[in-house]
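Slide 14.
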Amino acid sequence: MKITLTPSALLLICLIIQAYCNEKDAEQRPGAATQPPPPQHHTSRPENHHEKYSKRPRGAECVRCCDPPERVSAYPMYQPMPQINVTILKVGRRKPLHSNDYYQTLVFDTEYVNLYGHFNMFMGKFYCYVPGIYFFSLNVHTWNQKETYLHIMHNGAEAAILYAQASDRSIMQSQSLMLELQDQDEIWVRLFKGERDNAVFSDEYDTYVIFSGYLIKPNSDP
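Slide 15: predicted structure.
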């Protein structure tokens, strides 16, 4: 029996034989087998492909070139100055006192605070050992039907006066001031001489006469 092949059938047979021979040749050559490349996903696109669609221009990466400038406050920082030998004084008197024929120093008999002993209780005077600006305050109780007439003295000069007229009622009277003192300056309270009926009241149960002071600013501070 004679088989007749058409030209198209012959061409198909030739292509099949050629493909089979190529596959055999590839298996016989060592290291010739190659794996097909993995499919590329949208997350593993090349970098240049990603930059193609980026809106940031080339060379515009954020690079820290210097430290940010320090914030400067509009107000200067306060630096506390050390307080050296700050003088604090508070003394009182529990005995009444009448004026004599001469100027009389008001001597105190009760010591509340006398830091560093700058107030001499026997003399009734404060001696300055730390030059600077001081604050002093005097509080007294007046006597019925008697005047109250005192001076806060600074080196023999009247720095301030405390005065109350004679009255049927006794009252609390006060005076205060600031003074700039130098080394060895003296501060004390003086009762005016007895040209008038002058007195201050106090008793042993309560302290009606108080003298106090403290250093505000030493001269050594800027």
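Speaker note: The longest strand covers residues 132-141.
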